[in-house]
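Figure 6 in text form: structure in, sequence out.
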């Protein structure tokens, strides 16, 4: 009986030791997965991808810097996180003061990137399982600047840019794209990535240009003005009309024969200058025909001259109208 009892006790002891070992392994496994410092990083990334800015901010324990908060929730946030690919969350690296860094490797637009999150141990649950939280930090910002405009689109959201600029608090990691698409003015998209809270403020500068439609509209108005001017000059039989073009001769031109026409219309270039949009000087050619008489010989012969002309304009644009005003000097 004593030998049998020893065998039974040894068996129970072995089972107990195996159970303890299994429990230790289970605790270790849980602490390295769902209770490990990587889990808050996974939760935070999930909140970004779902556009849940409030949840992400609560997990990150971050303070929001002064500026526009349009990028911190919804579509803008989802768009920033949607470009994150090939995510690999690495093992935690111990730091002093019960803190760890959790590295995350990923790519945005094909470029490999790395972000390190700093977390601190905050306690335990059920005696064995560690709890972790992000060490508080301030969110980074993205500064957007636009030439001669007060609005733009950032990550698909229309935003205001007072005096042509604004600063946006953003989550990280993420990619932010600014663009301007308008009927009269547009700017190619500019993109910037933000990979950490400590990164310098990203800057996106939109170089606004006049659209082809605006240049075509201004060109049409300019051509109409020159055609009307030529028609009036012909009607009034004037060699020096109130137009950008004129002709000077020492001969006498036969009344009723003067005809003006524009032979080369100006090319339209619209550029920013001094906080407004200006049309570059307009250069073209006009043709005047008629009959003229040499005052010395009395001989009559054709008048057929091409004259160069150049003039400037003032461009006024509102939401509903475009106005081109010729500025002539005599």
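Output sequence:
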């Amino acid at each position: 009986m004593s030998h049998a009892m020893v065998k039974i006790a040894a068996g129970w002891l072995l089972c107990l030791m195996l159970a303890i070992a299994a429990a230790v392994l289970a605790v270790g496994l849980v602490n390295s997965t769902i209770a490990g410092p990587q889990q808050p990083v996974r939760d935070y990334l999930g909140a970004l991808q779902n556009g849940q800015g409030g949840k992400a901010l609560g997990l990150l324990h971050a303070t929001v810097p002064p500026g526009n908060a349009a990028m911190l929730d919804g579509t803008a946030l989802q768009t920033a996180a949607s470009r994150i690919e090939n995510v690999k969350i690495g093992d935690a690296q111990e730091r002093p003061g019960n803190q760890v860094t959790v590295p995350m490797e990923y790519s945005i637009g094909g470029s490999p990137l790395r972000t390190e999150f700093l977390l601190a141990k905050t306690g335990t649950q059920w005696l064995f399982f560690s709890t972790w939280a992000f060490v508080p930090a301030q969110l980074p910002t993205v500064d957007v600047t636009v030439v001669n405009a007060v609005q733009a689109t950032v990550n698909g959201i229309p935003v205001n840019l007072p005096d042509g600029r604004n600063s946006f608090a953003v989550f990280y990691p993420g990619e932010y794209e600014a663009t301007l698409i308008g009927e009269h003015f547009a700017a190619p998209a500019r993109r910037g990535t933000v990979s950490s809270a400590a990164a310098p403020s990203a800057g996106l500068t939109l170089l606004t240009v006049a659209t082809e439609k605006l240049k075509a509209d201004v060109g049409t108005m300019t051509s109409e003005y020159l055609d009307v001017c030529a028609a009036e000059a012909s009607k009034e039989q004037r060699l020096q009309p109130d137009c950008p073009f004129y002709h000077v001769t020492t001969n006498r031109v036969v009344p009723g024969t003067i005809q003006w026409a524009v032979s080369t219309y100006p090319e339209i270039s619209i550029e920013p200058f001094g906080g407004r949009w200006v049309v570059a000087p307009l250069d073209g050619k006009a043709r005047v025909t008629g009959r003229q008489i040499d005052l010395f010989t009395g001989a009559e012969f054709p008048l057929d001259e091409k004259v160069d002309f150049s003039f400037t304009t003032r461009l006024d644009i509102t939401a509903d109208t475009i106005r081109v005003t010729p500025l002539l000097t005599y």
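Caption detail: The radius of gyration is 38 Å.
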